[in-house]
């Protein structure tokens, strides 16, 4: 771990970001160039004290998960993110897999979408990043670890993941998830990460075994879903999926399908995260 270089890099990257780039108001009383330390802490989901110690070269070695959160908060490019990991004494994360991270360009698109809920997914259905609007609507989906980080795994193994969908829509959504995973398995034939996930799902869920045996294939693109939100009720959303050229990551954008959905999204924005903390709001899976 190169503490002094890490501290210098973090200070300079923080100073280089304009608040508007991360959805914060500039404010007339702002004296700090770039972001304040407390703003970085808020965006990264960590304590201000730890950010201070990192920037002063007094911290313990940060974990890969913490570095990933910092990279997202500071809007680092792929090269800058890799440099951050090297300075902290870790190997940079691979393009996909357990340590997969959202691409810098997709993170910037999340910022630009503002009040429109959006998230970045890996091709296996790991939620790599969300904007604030999506956290309000669906909860913090980046917090899961192990197999639970895959939406398809939670859907077939946790009743709460299915409870956010209308009963009459659950079979269709289950088929979509399995058909999408089947397409990934075809593209990544022989990949142990994909094969292992399929094997564990087959062992854990009779419903998954049934649908997998039907060999349906389909890539998720446009869709309409009704989310059963714990606080505001039914929210009908149109979902549009944009895929990167290598098909390894997806940007999922959700827009209200009608005036009622638009009003309920506005209610969530007014209530904000204080009443509905991240990780406890709305739907745990899509």
Could you write a compact summary of the structure shown?
By secondary structure, the chain is of the alpha+beta class. The chain has 2 domains: 3-87, lambda repressor-like DNA-binding domains (434 Repressor (Amino-terminal Domain), Orthogonal Bundle); 108-275, Beta-Lactamase. The chain contains 13 helices and 5 strands.
Structure write-up:
The chain is of the alpha+beta class and 286 residues long. The chain folds into two domains: 3-87, Orthogonal Bundle (434 Repressor (Amino-terminal Domain)), CATH 1.10.260.40; 108-275, 2-Layer Sandwich (Beta-Lactamase), CATH 3.30.450.180. It has 13 helices and five strands. The protein has helices spanning 3-16, 37-44, 48-55, 64-73, 78-87, 104-113, 132-138, 151-157, 159-162, 170-187, 192-204, 206-213, 259-275, and strands at 118-122, 127-130, 223-229, 233-243, 249-256. Strands 2-1-5-4-3 form a five-stranded antiparallel β-sheet, sandwiched between helices. Helix 2 packs across helix 3 (48-55), helix 2 packs across helix 4 and helix 4 packs antiparallel against helix 5. The longest helix is centred in the middle third of the chain and has 18 residues, at 170-187. The two termini are 38 Å apart.
